[in-house]
């Protein structure tokens, strides 16, 4: 098959590349390749079974049209300061301008026009004042919250729009290899499990998301695509009662707090806060179970959950951060018999594991029904654990009660976007005709920043013809 553009991965970066090409009036033939299913066919059986079924050949929460975005909490961060390092590549002004542009597209497809975090100025100042006293930085970031169920509808509308306007999407198909000729990428070979198909294209866009970070890292090593080990985030998801987070939830909706706690001074940050939300499980390759969080527009719980992530960098002699994080996750899964582990913060400080009976007696009831009570510290590296403990205690100055005995910590929370593909401001890699976008490229983190990378990619391809 011949195409002008082939896009591997139908997450936000790939989707917005195709959308922008259409919006620019491009007549180029666009082919998308997606390992998972159509969004309307993606379903997690856990809602009926009450426990993770470890779906094969992949987890439907992380794989399929729109990637993890379909089942995420659906938050669009509207500040260039949040979402990765893309602004250092393209410039903060262009990043912010493109965020506004992409945000309008989300609105056109049905996103809620309300923006969280723009009101309550005096209360925001008070929260910032307390954060400064605790040695933390509060990052201002307005949030457009689509909600998990609404995100599904929005991406379904986008999927139909693309197909109605001529974009060919091959679902259930995997990229097997690149087609290379003298350091020029001329397309890809894909497989649906039964037969292979060769797609020749002038432009090959790899946008496999966080789910495909490990695959892209191996691809870079195999084909000598210039890249460097980046950052990997290892952490926990913290869950507290809504009453503890009441003020922050109302004033900020999502608190973006960053700190560098002693003694190691690694970067530690909050991420993906879900007021009235639910802790969830995602499954990656090799049966790796990781924790995440969702927040619905209508359905609410009594708890708020938020991720606390510790950044790690490796260079010499070890330079495989994704493999390191996977080992941490595997060890934690081992302790929980393949599931997610939970421990009370007070038990961590007391040097003891948490028991099911103690969870049943607490004010905070886990929103993940099949979570296993145990000892996170038996698997979490000392450096990461100390960073997390000290950050939680600093957070208690900003949000009194956050570091209470009953506060729940779920593990492992891992973010796989560590492979940083080397590219210029026009996204050119060391292989002519090959572009790497989104979270798997190491340059973005989250829905909005991946989306704007796709917008800019679409503009470039449209201009080149």
Write up what this structure looks like.
This protein has an 8-stranded mixed beta sheet with strand order 4-12-13-16-11-19-17-18. Strands 1, 2, 6, 7, 8, 9 and 21 form a 7-stranded mixed beta sheet that branches. The protein is α+β, with helices and mostly antiparallel strands and 465 residues long. The mean pLDDT is 93. It is built from 13 helices and 21 strands. Helix 1 runs parallel beside helix 13 and helix 4 packs across helix 13. The longest helix has 18 residues. Helix 1 links the parallel strand 1 and strand 2.
Largest sheet: spatial strand order: 4-12-13-16-11-19-17-18
Question: Strand percentage, roughly?
Answer: 25-35%
pLDDT below 50 for ≥5 consecutive residues: which ranges? Answer: none
* Number of helical regions: 13
- Principal-axes shape call: globular
Instruction: Give the beta-strand count.
Output: 21
Assign a percent range to the helix content. 25-40%
- Radius of gyration, taken over Cα atoms and rounded to an integer in Å: 21 Å
Average residue-wise pLDDT: 93
| Structural class estimated from helices and strands | alpha+beta
Let me know the largest β-sheet. Answer: 8 strands, mixed
Q: Termini distance? A: 19 Å
List keywords for this structure.
465 residues; alpha+beta; 8-stranded mixed sheet; 32% helix; 7-stranded mixed sheet
Short recap of the structure:
This protein has 465 residues and is α+β, with helices and mostly antiparallel strands.
Topology:
Layout: E1 2-8, H1 12-23, E2 30-34, H2 46-49, E3 75-77, H3 86-90, H4 92-108, H5 121-133, E4 136-139, E5 143-145, H6 148-164, E6 168-171, E7 174-181, E8 184-191, E9 196-206, H7 213-223, E10 227-229, E11 231-241, H8 242-251, E12 256-259, E13 268-274, E14 278-284, E15 288-294, E16 303-313, H9 321-335, E17 341-344, H10 345-350, H11 356-361, E18 372-373, H12 382-398, E19 408-415, E20 419-421, E21 434-436, H13 447-464
Parallel strand pairs: 1-2, 1-9, 2-6, 9-21, 17-18
Antiparallel strand pairs: 3-5, 4-12, 7-8, 8-9, 10-20, 11-16, 11-19, 12-13, 13-16, 14-15, 17-19
Helix pairs in contact: 1-13, 4-13, 5-12
């Amino acid at each position: 098959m011949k195409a002008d553009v082939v896009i591997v991965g139908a997450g936000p970066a790939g989707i917005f590349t195709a959308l922008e090409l259409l919006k620019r009036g491009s007549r180029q033939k666009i082919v998308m390749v997606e390992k998972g299913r159509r969004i309307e066919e993606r379903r997690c059986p856990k809602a009926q079974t009450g426990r993770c079924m470890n779906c094969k050949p992949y987890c439907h929460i992380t794989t399929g049209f729109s990637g993890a975005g379909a089942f995420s909490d659906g938050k669009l961060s509207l500040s260039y300061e949040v979402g990765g390092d893309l602004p250092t590549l393209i410039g903060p002004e262009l990043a912010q301008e493109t965020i506004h542009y992409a945000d309008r597209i989300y609105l056109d497809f049905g996103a809620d026009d309300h923006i969280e975090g723009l009101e309550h100025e005096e209360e925001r100042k008070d929260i910032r004042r307390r954060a400064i006293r605790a040695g933390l930085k509060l990052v201002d970031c307005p949030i457009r919250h689509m909600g998990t169920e609404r995100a599904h509808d929005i991406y379904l509308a986008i999927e139909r729009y693309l197909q109605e306007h001529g974009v060919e999407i091959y679902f259930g198909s995997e990229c097997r290899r690149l087609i290379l000729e003298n350091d020029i990428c001329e397309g890809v070979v894909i497989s649906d499990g039964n037969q292979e198909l060769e797609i020749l294209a002038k432009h090959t866009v790899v946008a496999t998301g966080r789910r495909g970070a490990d695959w892209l890292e191996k691809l870079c090593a195999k084909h000598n695509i210039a890249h460097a080990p980046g950052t990997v985030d290892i952490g926990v998801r913290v869950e507290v009662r809504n009453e503890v987070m009441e003020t922050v939830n109302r004033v900020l909706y999502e608190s973006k707090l960053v700190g560098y706690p002693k003694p190691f001074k690694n970067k530690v940050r909050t991420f993906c806060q879900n007021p009235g939300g639910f802790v969830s499980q995602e499954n990656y390759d090799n049966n790796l179970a990781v924790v995440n969080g969702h927040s619905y527009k209508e359905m609410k719980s009594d708890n708020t959950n938020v991720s606390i992530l510790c950044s790690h960098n490796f260079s010499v002699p070890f330079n495989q951060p994704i493999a390191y994080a996977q080992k941490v996750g595997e060890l934690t899964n081992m302790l929980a018999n393949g599931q997610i582990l939970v421990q009370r913060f007070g038990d961590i400080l007391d040097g003891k594991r948490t028991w099911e009976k103690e969870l049943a007696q607490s004010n905070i009831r886990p929103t993940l029904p099949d979570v296993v009570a145990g000892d996170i510290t038996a698997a979490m590296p000392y450096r990461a654990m100390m960073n997390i403990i000290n950050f939680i205690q600093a957070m208690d100055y900003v949000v009194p009660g956050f570091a209470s005995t009953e506060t729940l910590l779920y593990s492992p929370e891992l973010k796989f976007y560590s492979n940083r593909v080397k590219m210029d401001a026009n996204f050119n890699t060391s292989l002519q005709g090959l572009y790497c976008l989104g979270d798997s490229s190491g340059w973005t983190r989250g829905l909005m920043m991946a989306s704007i990378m796709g917008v800019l990619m679409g503009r470039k391809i449209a201009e080149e013809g």
